[in-house]
Amino acid sequence: MGVIEETFAGHEVARASLDNCVKCTICETVCPVAKANPLFTGPKYNGPQAERFRDGASVDHSLQWCDFCGICTLNCPQGVKIAELNEQAATRMKEQNGFPLRDRIIPETNLEGMFLSPVAPVANWALGLRPLRVVIEKVIKIHRDAPMPTAHTETLAKWLKHRTKTDIKPTKGPVVFFQGCAGGYFETETSKKSIEVLEHLGYEVFVPKQSCCGLAKQSNGLFKGATKDILNLCDNLLKFGNELPVVSSSGSCIGMVKHEAHEVIGVDDPRLANVSVRSRDFCEFLMEEYRAGRLDASEFKEIDLTVPYHQPCQVKSQGMGFPAVQLMELIPGVKVIESNEPCCGIAGTYGLKAERYDTAQKIGKGVFEHMQNYNEGVGVCDTETCRWQIAKSSGVKIVHPVWLLHHALGLSDNLLK
Amino acid sequence: MRTMDADVVVIGGGATGAGVVRDVAMRGFSAVLLDKADLGQGTTGRYHGLLHSGGRYVVSDPESATECAEENEIVTRIHADAVEKTGGLFVVTPDDPMEFSDQWTEGATKSKVPWTEISTAEALRREPRLNPGIKRAFAVHDGTVDGWQMVWGAAHSAEDHGAKVLTYTAVTEIIREGDQVTAVIAHDLKNDEQVTITTRFVINTAGPWAGRIADLVGCHDVEVVPGRGIMIAMNHRLVNTVVNRCIYPADGDILVPVHTVSIIGTTDVKADDPQRLAIPRNEVQQMFDSGEALIPGFREARAVHAWAGARPLFKDKRVAATDTRHMSRGMSILDHGTRDGVQGIVSIIGGKLTTYRLMAKNVVDVMCDQLGESRPCTTADEAVPGSADGHTYVITHRLRENEKARATHLEVKPKATDVAVAAKAGRTPSHAAIDDQIICECELMSRKMLTDLLAEQPDATLDDLRRQLRLGMGPCQGGFCSMRATGVALEDGGIDIERATGLLRLFLKNRWIGLWPILYGEQVRQTALDDWIFQGTFDVEHLPVPESEVEL
User: Fold this and answer.
1) Which CATH class is domain B76-141+225-305?
2) What's the predicted TM-score (pTM) here?
């Protein structure tokens, strides 16, 4: 009698999907981890195959290498929930064998933001100190070279309180903006630009007081905490009714709301069901508006720029094509070159961990090279941790697609600030 | 021509025969076991894998129930590596009458079958896919047993006690001098050689073929009715405990988790020839309907293979020959001395896999009486080779081995010789292979498992290997592993190309028998892909035709 069955409702669905597997091995050929580290047995082995051998106590080990990028599920032509099976089994393995302290600390993204922001200059300086990073690596096993976010004294909440209110009258419907933890504390510029772009285009933007979506907890196997977080977030977003579009420039967090909480953890709650179906990635939302004739692209001024772009695995897994590419290419003069790479290696928090750092760097090598080869001073990527990883490892400045839009709409003079 | 000499010749290498040869060998007799095919290829290998708690028989056959309860405990002990202690449930589904469950509890208590009533909520907690409408549930000590593993365990134990086991050796004649059996003549099919074994006693354990063996020695009219039953393996374990319908024993009332699959069974229809058993379409549908009653959505789950087995039931004139389920389930021991005036041979027919050891004991007791020897049975006291540590099988077994090998890989230092060679060449020594190459991915069968067994049984067919290693028994049904296994056999197993082709074709042919009846849903996609691989990549239908097709 497996404990998984009792803990995660989502497991029944994922397990049933293993019947679809015809052993074609496509998932193994696209798996970025299996290519980078031979100790990982691969998605087919760990997923639909190993699942048939699981009941009771976990005997898994090699799953510790899976970065849950979801490329396997995305590519499976038969509809097997491979990544979901792997993440569920890995969680079971960790629940049985114990979580390292680090894996409990890293996912507390909201707390980290709250503590670091008030002392941002000191925190940023300290996290740049080699000796301190060596100590951190020794003590809690976060790699000394892993990318760290930049804290800001002015959080998004502070900016919202003190900014001069826009005088543009809303001409289109209201939207709810979901910023995500990183968008509230570290990647505040991206959040600000997103809000300003939406307002400029005529939307009324509500920014509710909000909390963590639980994604980092989920990917670290802390399913109970993640469930609590996602439902708490739904409650916050539901304060603005149950019909408005929820738009986010945090590409991975919105994926948690859209499908991961339900499909990986098995959260089956009407609040999540309601919020998830009206959640949109920022670029996805604007492309839907464009196709519906509600976005006038003639307003975009020309930017003569070729940008390398990487669509993160967690955005790919939302199965919505490449809205960021299409949106950026609505700007006259912009040419986007997609990386055609599965994953940059960070996969949320995977690439931070000392023992996985080398694997993560190997996974992301193609992305880093892509940025280096094609950039004209800037590269583009939709999610925060991926931007930090790619910027750190490639040396190229990486921004969210909204930065280009903001500039094209004349809201900023400098594309890179 | 070879000649041998043995106190006892046992004919038929199913569970009963393996039990008998082990029993006689442990009592100190020299013995030979003969089978015209592989061990456990007949009835023993073609069942649902249930190790009875006795619960099934508490109303219909209380004596069998008690025997099952006792033997279950013994088999679990002496064949630990073949038995999984899954536990079992008896559930009253919404379609079943409640009255029977009262008879059942009364019967279970009387026949000393351990049981406890559990709440339906608890039953659903243990098995979340169970029909949520169940009205009552009882927990029993059902387990599952790998019939092949058990038979090979008994055979190896017999060999350790001096017995000889000859597979693919068909009995052609039984020689009598006057009314006394004196020798058995058999044909070694693989080497095309005659084998003569002089002996003083023959035990006929040929199951559905027992009548034919008895005929050879002039004991006629031993009528064994093959009761055909079909079973279907579902792709994964829909349940992790044995689930029985709490009704008077009927068709399709058991769902058994064995290894990686769950097996629904079974039907019971009189067959004419145990060698050719049909898997009729209507019975397949009947099994799926029965599955639905236990597990809603059963029809949407994937079936991977179907097969039919023949229960050997000795015809009892009191019941009609078409109603095989209600013939005597207990074993029948035929003493051909009093029945036919032939000394030195007894036949044993019928019985259950769970009670195979007890049946062997009983028939060998009869033999000892006739021979005037007093040698007590010791088969319950000693575990078979591989089971001495008492660890029962668990489903995670093969996964655990592989995962452990990987997790500890970096701790294993490269061999000193490799280090020296590498140093000479000026490179860093490479680690040993991370783990043994997996040949059958579905069932996690490694290359070493295959080559080791091939070294032991060089003339084995892929099906012989399959029964011992589970090669090709998973969802892809040999689609990805049979050609790998053939290649490995060619590289390491010392066979030539012609035989390799023959082995592959025979294996595919046999897999197809169990695939045709269940071609629906997901298994169609798999079968189509497999077929493309074999027709498109290997052009398996147009490979050079060997002089004689491999059949053994």
Assistant:
1) alpha beta
2) 0.92
